[in-house]
């Protein structure tokens, strides 16, 4: 071997040394930013955003649970049911218990009991019971993707650890539309616009014969 | 999108009139070979026609027709389309088909799998044992009349879920004890003297004994289940002479969940999130392969923008997988976690992109038949641009500076665990394992799919086939992937992302299709048979992690036991895909 033995190891150690230096140099930079602009490296949104960006250098760890990475809008975790507030504050489920979500669900973890009118025996578009076996749910998001009524959506809450089996019923699954709009503002705006357009189209066609 | 295939009219029926007939069933292609002539046919195919690479062997149980079929896909390592040939036999238990291991040694594990799961006995196979199930398992789970313990219905969706979906826990529905069946004459209370390990140890002891001057005792050692296990629950049984490996058999299946049976109960779309869980490090690639296979059957092509997004995601996956593989190989070599965590930083940033695009970091479930699930959210393209043009090239150089010249890595890697070019082809090795042995075979170039025929990149190739080359080729491939991503960022067109209206029930015409992609670990293929119903009749995964292990034994023989885990690390397996 013509080259000095151990040169490659030294070169590699140079890389680790640079990382070591970067970590403390970043600390120094952030100390300066803290003094001048009040921005902090740890436990602050700007610090977390920096560590998740292409410019991050040195130590990179986000100290969960003290710090949490913000989740993107499309982030999906177990589904929930959207309800709207009625005029007297009652919960009006968007779900019509059409059953598409339970049919598209790959692990078959959605169970729906449809309400039937006790007099006519015909189905009423409102679920009597709605269960999701969260321990079986694979968070694929197909139910939310194919729901024609925007009634089932994927949540952002991922801290679900529990000591037993988690089976969520209708009560536990129901969340207000305001919550949905807060976690997925762009999606909600898009869907609201589409629904408004549909309504307008229906209004236009129904208004036509009179005109 | 298929490439302009080289014009070649391969009329095997005219060439072998007594042995071969064309498969004329609607939606099917390929050739049906007489059972007894199969070895002769395969030898002629390999030696005279140049189809030297047997990619996939699997079986199909045509229960209504009372037939079993063995399906082979063979290719040329010089590129071009492949040839599909089949053997049909009357359905019995077991059925017998001649083994092709002597012609294509890469069939060894795949034939064992077909025996294990479908009950196809390959006569002349040197070591026909079960591979994913345990030795005294009763029945062959992929046969259509076999039912799993928690069986509910043949096909999803299950009727009990809606409209009278009174919830019942799965474990209450079929309680332990009620959901078991035993073969006739078997008493679970009685101890049998059957030793499930006997066949393994007997097979293991069949090795070439060499005469050495010194009388030594050969030692049988089980490593794992779990130890070679920075990779998962995996076991290797070895016979050692001192520290030298004389014989080696991998034992797998600890993570087996019969993915293919689940897939045959699912509807076509339901399988998409399940493919994420095959090789859980490369879910975008898995989605790609499955989507291609089903699109082939449906006869649809995704719109331009979807193709670019797909390729961009698949190449990001390759980078994420390769940095992980390099990091893990260093773990296996004993350099615990410093290189691993350096590599993972870049993977983190790529996973952030997947999360923004698909909603999940690892279980992406992003591809749909005819496109992708949703368009790129605002800002994602900028993030990809920042990574592909700025950060990743710099970081890959840094990782290479950390590792490539390191004397310890060089002395542990160079010349160790060599897989020669001939052996790599013979054992059906795929992906980086094949290319590090000097075979420039890459499905993206050999049989281009999607838009790869329009993109500029080189097929990375290294000549020596040792551990060091298998590490370095991953650096090369990352650089080529970066080139591809840079092109897709620059050329990303506008327009729709779905060719058809998104639907949860797709109509798939009857027939068969084999869709394959160059996954980060090698050729990932999906063989699908549709009968026109909502679920696939047969859903088979050609898993590169699994088939690459065929070459693991031959690579290790003659090496020291300390190199065994390093060789395994350089193959880069994921047990989720290997065990399925």
* Total helical elements of chain B: 20
Q: Rg of chain A from C-alpha positions?
A: 26 Å
Q: Which pair of chains has the greatest number of interface residues, and how are they split between the two chains?
A: A-B, 51 and 58 residues
Broad shape of chain B: globular
**Percent range for β-strand residues of chain A:** 15-25%
How many beta-strand elements of chain B? 15
In the predicted model, the low-confidence regions of chain A spanning at least 5 consecutive residues are none
Largest sheet of chain B: 5 strands, mixed
| SS strand fraction of chain B | 15-25%
Distance between the termini of chain B: 28 Å
Which whole number gives the mean pLDDT of chain B? Answer: 88
Q: Could you estimate the helical fraction of the residues of chain B in percent?
A: 25-40%
Number of helices of chain A: 7
Gross morphology of chain A is elongated
Q: Mind describing the biggest β-sheet of chain A?
A: 4 strands, mixed
Q: Poorly predicted ranges of chain B (pLDDT <50, ≥5 residues)? A: 1-7
Give the rounded overall mean pLDDT of chain A.
Answer: 87
What is the helix content of chain A?
Answer: 25-40%
What class do helices, strands and sheet pairing of chain B give? Answer: alpha+beta
**Over the alpha carbons, how many angstroms does the gyration radius of chain B reach?**
24 Å
């Amino acid at each position: 071997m013509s080259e000095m033995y151990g040169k490659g190891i030294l070169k590699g150690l140079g890389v680790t040394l640079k990382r070591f230096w970067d970590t403390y140099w970043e600390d120094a930079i952030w100390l300066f930013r803290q003094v001048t602009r009040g921005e902090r490296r740890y436990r602050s949104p700007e610090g977390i955003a920096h560590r998740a960006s292409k410019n991050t250098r040195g130590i990179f760890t986000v100290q969960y649970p003290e710090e949490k990475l913000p989740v993107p809008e499309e982030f999906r975790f177990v589904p929930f049911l959207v309800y709207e507030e009625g005029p007297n504050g009652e919960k009006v489920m968007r779900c019509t218990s059409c059953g598409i979500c339970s049919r598209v669900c790959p692990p078959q973890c959605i169970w729906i009991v449809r309400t039937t009118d006790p007099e006519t025996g015909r189905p009423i578009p409102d679920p009597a019971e709605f269960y999701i076996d969260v321990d079986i749910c694979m968070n694929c998001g197909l139910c939310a993707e194919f729901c024609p009524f925007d009634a089932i959506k994927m949540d952002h809450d991922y801290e679900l650890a529990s000591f037993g089996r988690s089976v969520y019923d209708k009560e536990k699954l129901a969340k207000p539309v305001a919550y949905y709009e807060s976690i997925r503002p762009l999606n909600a705006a898009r869907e609201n616009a589409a629904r408004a357009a549909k309504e307008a189209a229906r209004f236009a066609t129904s208004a036509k014969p009179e005109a | 999108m298929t490439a302009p295939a080289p014009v070649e009219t391969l009329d095997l029926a005219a060439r072998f009139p007594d042995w071969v007939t064309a498969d004329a069933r609607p939606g099917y292609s390929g050739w049906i070979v007489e059972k007894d002539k199969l070895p002769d046919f395969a030898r002629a195919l390999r030696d005279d026609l140049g189809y030297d690479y047997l990619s996939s062997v699997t079986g199909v149980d045509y229960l209504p027709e009372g037939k079993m079929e063995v399906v082979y896909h063979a290719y040329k390592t010089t590129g071009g389309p492949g040839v599909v040939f089949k053997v049909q036999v009357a359905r019995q238990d077991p059925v017998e088909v001649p083994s092709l291991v002597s012609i294509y040694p890469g069939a060894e594990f795949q034939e064992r799998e077909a025996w294990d799961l479908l009950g196809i006995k390959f006569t002349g196979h040197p070591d026909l044992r079960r591979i994913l199930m345990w030795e005294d398992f009763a029945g062959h789970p992929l046969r259509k009349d076999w039912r799993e313990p928690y069986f509910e219905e043949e096909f999803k969706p299950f009727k009990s879920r809606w409209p009278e979906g009174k919830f019942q826990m799965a474990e209450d529905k079929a309680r332990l004890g009620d959901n078991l069946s035993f073969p006739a004459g078997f008493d679970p209370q009685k101890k049998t003297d059957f030793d499930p390990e006997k066949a393994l140890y007997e097979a293991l002891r069949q090795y070439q004994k060499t005469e050495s001057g010194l009388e030594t005792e050969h030692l049988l050692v089980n490593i794992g289940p779990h130890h070679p296990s920075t990779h998962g629950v995996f076991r290797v049984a070895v016979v050692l002479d001192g520290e030298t490996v004389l014989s080696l058999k991998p034992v797998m299946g600890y993570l087996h969940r019969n993915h293919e049976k689940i897939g045959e109960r699912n509807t076509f779309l339901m399988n998409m999130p399940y493919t994420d869980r095959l090789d859980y490090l490369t879910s975008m690639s898995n989605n790609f392969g499955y989507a291609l296979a089903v699109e082939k059957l449906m006869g649809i092509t995704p719109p331009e923008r979807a193709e670019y997004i797909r390729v961009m995601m698949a190449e990001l996956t390759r980078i994420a997988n390769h940095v992980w593989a390099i990091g893990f190989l260093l773990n296996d070599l004993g350099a615990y976690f410093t290189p691993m965590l350096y590599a993972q930083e870049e993977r983190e940033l790529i996973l952030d992109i997947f999360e923004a695009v698909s909603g999940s970091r690892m279980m992406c479930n992003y591809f749909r038949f005819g496109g992708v699930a949703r368009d790129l959210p605002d800002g994602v393209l900028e993030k990809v641009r920042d990574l592909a043009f700025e950060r990743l090239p710099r970081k890959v150089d840094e990782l290479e500076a950390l590792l490539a010249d390191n004397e310890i890595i060089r002395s542990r890697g160079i010349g160790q665990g060599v897989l020669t070019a001939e052996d790599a082809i013979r054992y059906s090795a795929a992906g980086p394992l094949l290319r590090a042995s000097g075979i420039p075979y890459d499905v993206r170039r050999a049989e281009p799919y999607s838009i790869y025929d329009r993109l500029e990149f080189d097929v990375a190739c290294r000549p020596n086939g040792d551990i060091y080359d298998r590490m370095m080729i991953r650096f090369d491939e990352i650089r080529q992937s970066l080139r591809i991503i840079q092109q897709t960022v620059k050329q990303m067109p506008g327009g729709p992302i779905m060719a058809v209206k998104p639907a949860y029930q797709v109509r798939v015409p009857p027939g068969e299709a084999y869709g394959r992609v160059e996954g980060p670990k090698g050729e990932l293929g999906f063989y699908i048979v549709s009968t026109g119903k909502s679920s696939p009749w047969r859903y088979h995964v050609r898993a590169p992690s699994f088939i690459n292990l065929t070459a693991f034994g031959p690579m290790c023989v003659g090496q020291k036991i300390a190199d065994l885990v390093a060789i395994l690390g350089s193959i880069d397996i994921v047990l989720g895909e290997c065990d399925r």
